[in-house]
Amino acid sequence: MDSIVTDSELYPGKGLGRASVNANPGYHTQKDLYKPIKNGIWLYFFLLIFEGALRKWFLPGLATPLLIVRDPIALYIIIAAWQRKIIPSDPGLIWMTIIGFFSILTALCFGHGSLLVAAYGARILLLHFPLIFIIGSVFQRDDVVKIGIVILIIAIPMTFLIAAQFYSPQSAWVNRGLGGDMKGAGFSGALGYMRPPGTFSFTTGNSQFYSLVTCFVFYFLLNSKEINRILLIASAFCLLAAIPLTISRSVFFQVIVTSLFVVIASIRNSKYIMKVIFGGLLLFAALAVLSQYSFFQTATEAFTARFTNASASEGGVEGTFLDRYLGGMLTAIGNGFSGKLPFLGYGIGMGTNVASMFLQGRRGFFVSEEEWGRIIAELGPIMGLGVIAIRVSLTFKIIRAGYKRLNQGDSLTWLLLSVGAIALAQGGWAQPTSLGFSIIISGLMLASIRSVILKSNKVTPVRSNS
Q1: Contact criterion met (CB below 8 Å) for 21 and 460
Q2: What angle do CA 31, 50, 196 make, to 5 degrees?
Q3: Which of 197, 312, 176 shows the shortest CA–CA distance to 245?
């Protein structure tokens, strides 16, 4: 069995990532030590993918409590990791925990005053954020690859599902909304077609899922020995089919962004050049085949109309890429120090839909729809910028380590960064599905960077390089 050595650039904390073992080093194997935590992470992942299906189709009467179905799993993972003393002592994690607890007090004393809303908001920092480091501590690189393979397997039936949703009326069972809502779960698309949500409660989950599919399709195109080639080809077909079927510009631009990361990888490592050319030819051939079918032609017409209409109203690439990925950041920081916001903010959780439903009885945004604006409005300029700084700092650490790995011939972290960098630094964590994808992808990035050496079949205390 492998023994793990963590990357000191990512884990500078004293004793970070050390496993607790008995005095007898042969008492536990690493598999025994990490198995409950790994099982919890896999359950968290599967609930992320199928939570919406439970809320819409199978347990509609429990749609509201299932909104936080992953929270008990997150708590279990944290407790299991704490008992085994493998929670990293990363300064960012420590400060995020302090801010999380303190923000509950400020929300109750100086903000909205609702314990329920404060607890719902603080769970992001206290329950979900630590999972990034726990996943990075117990998952190995091969676990990341296994996740990728499972994602590509799921992508095949998911694509058939969104095709059925695309061509079915909103009253159909496949389009049923949360709690069995007969109005449907589709969102405004184009030419009379709605954007399908897949197994998710809303279309954003579908877009984030296919963004992750994009990462792994491109990764396995460069590393085809790590996957069954029939599965790779089938998932590549499904990804191309999903671009127009989702009617999502986010998926389209994610394919472009990940392609750029692939180009950079091929520039840094000449061994990828022929694989990039082969992959490009494969995707072009798949596109040529798909374009012969009417279902793809119709979806493409709807996607093109949506793209044209949205570009005219939102400003094309500037409105889609710059605004969605980078928009609102400087404005949020400026507002934080403009004196317009309370010094300690309106209270954590105030920017979530749960707050609007609980305090106002309807969905909406009390503060800001943009992530950085929401954080600063909820927590105030000092704590808000602290949370942002922790997320951005961790992002740049992973970028630096991922680029180093790319130069060493490993493209996994680099391609995950094509989605994960924005998800970690500026992803919308107020929405549960978006939060879940950000946590999973960030944890996978950390896990993919870890140094693994073959040593023995026993667990030994992990030494930090610092």
Answers
A1: yes
A2: 145
A3: 197
What confidence category does residue 353 fall into, taking pLDDT thresholds of 50, 70 and 90? confident
The phi and psi torsions of 193 (rounded to 5 degrees) equal -100, 145
Decide which of 25 and 384 is more confident.
384
d(CA 49, CA 51): 6
Long-range contacts for 274-281 (Cβ within 8 Å, ≥24 apart)?
Answer: 275/221, 275/222, 275/224, 276/221, 276/222, 278/221, 279/218, 279/221, 279/222
- Fill in the amino acid letter for 347: G
- Cα(320)–Cα(310) distance, integer angstroms: 9
pTM given for the model: 0.89
Q: What whole-number distance in Å separates Cα of residue 34 and Cα of residue 112?
A: 40
Residues 184, 56: Cα–Cα separation, whole Å: 10
What would the pLDDT profile of 93-121 be if each residue is shown by its tens digit? 999 999 999 999 999 999 999 999 999 99
SS3 at position 449: helix
Q: How far from 388 is each of 332, 361, 408, CA to CA, in Å? A: 11, 30, 30
Q: Is 5 left (phi over 0), alpha (psi -120 to 50) or beta?
A: beta
- Residues 85, 97: Cα–Cα separation, whole Å: 17
* Residue 187 DSSP SS3: strand
pLDDT > 70? residue 323: no
Quick one: which H or E segment has residue 194?
strand 193-195
Largest CA distance in the chain: 68
Within a 10 A sphere around the Cβ of 341, how many other Cβ atoms? 20
Provide CB contacts within 8 A for 180, sequence distance 6+: 56, 57, 60, 63
Picking from 16, 9, 10, the residue whose alpha carbon sits closest to that of residue 85 is: 16
| Rounded Cα distance, 234 and 219, in Å | 15
Which residues fall within 8 angstroms of residue 439, CB to CB, at 6 or more apart? 128, 129, 131, 132, 135
139, amino acid identity? F
Q: How far is CA 454 from the centre of its chain?
A: 30
